[in-house]
# Entry
Amino acid sequence: MTAQTDITTPGHAGARTMRTLPGPRGWPLVGNLFQLNPTHLHSTLERWAARYGPMYVFRFARHPTLVLTQPDLIQHVLRERPHRFRRVSTIEAVFRSVGVNGVFDAEGAEWHRQRRIVMQGFNTAQLKRFFPTLVAMTGRLRRRWTRAADRGLEVDVPHDFMRYTVDVTTNLAFGHDMNTLEEDGDAIQQHLAQIFPMLNRRLHAPIPYWRWFKLPADRALDRALAAVRVIIQDLVRQRSADRARGQTTAARPANFLDAMLAARDGAEATLTDEELFGNVLTILLAGEDTTANTMAWIVHFMLEHPAVESRVRAEADAVLGARHVVDRMEDLERLTYLDAVAAEAMRLKAVAPVMYLEANEDTAVGGVHVAGGTAIALLPRVAAVDDRYFSAAREFRPERWLADADPRYVVHDPRAFVPFGAGARFCPGRNLALLEIKTAISMLVRNFGLVRTRNAPPVGERFAFTMMPTGLCVNLAARNGV
# Structure
């Protein structure tokens, strides 16, 4: 554990200015703009942190951004949302430029209003009712992989996990079975895959050029959004028809979409059509991307560490017995080593390695004056791989998360681990994500062996609003007698 740092205080009496902080040299007018590649943004910022320390400043054009890597500062800034800090306003502008007007980019009273509706779709009772459907989705994934194993086909692990998470999300949140795991074509994934990378690109553009002219990638984004809007409109029409037939009620919504329709159609009309679309799209994007990428990173680590894969498999065999897929929710609690593997994967390969916030008012962070409107970039992974916060921090050691952890891992600072955020804006989909991860990964190791594809390229990192693996090429071998 490290000494507590001066956190944040209103005003700036006695605080030093951001000009006193180190940082990379830039060019006049553009600052460090040309040093920031959006697809490797996280690694550039982390490399600068190694050079300039736990607090530094870079400039996006003329605008300074304060970078924080210390866990206590990161935790406090996250917990001071939404009254003292907010998501950086550029995100709201970029999201709303494409019609994404939902809880992710909302702030203040607007966020509070939408958050209450979103939480109804992810509470514990709803997840318990949904679990048998999750089991069925996982069975579909097993059948898809069985066909690939029988034919000796290479498996695009991130792609298949994205199909799985889309099926899970649309079933839970919208009461609609898209069944992308068994249908031909890429349909909605093909469109969703274009959205986050382009939003990330626009977020880091020096000017909003798309307001005046559009590049081919911008036109492709428009087509993808139009196609997704049609799909969402069909979902809304179907659920509205169910409501009209009395199959669901405002007092007892069956899912997330029903709760939003009740809010839109109620006497007080607390949700607009655009907010409904924005939240449905947000749930689709977040439900697909973050959880799928986390599961893909887990597969990567099991390939890198065969002993870990063997231990995960032994635990799954013991819990599942003769079953192919865990079908009792309480059994997931017995997968304690898999829990530890998931936590360790999220520590080393956080799918949100950069979090952009903004000060709502003049304040002081770590003894440094921060003017209202100043952008702040949080880099949680820097501390997560620092030996001051975790023993053998750069090593993949799931044992550190177990109740009877090896005494060699004596340094274990939970403040340096924020995969789902912290404070009031803690991720509402956390419990669903963990259900998916444990159900899908236990099915994978119970039924298949993992084999890295021959001549596969090294696995790399790509940042596209979330961090995903590249080059993760896998063959699956069906286990004898399973």
In short: The two ends are 46 Å apart (CA to CA). The longest helix spans residues 273-304. Confidence is low (pLDDT under 50) at residues 1-5. DSSP finds 14 helices and 13 strands in the chain.
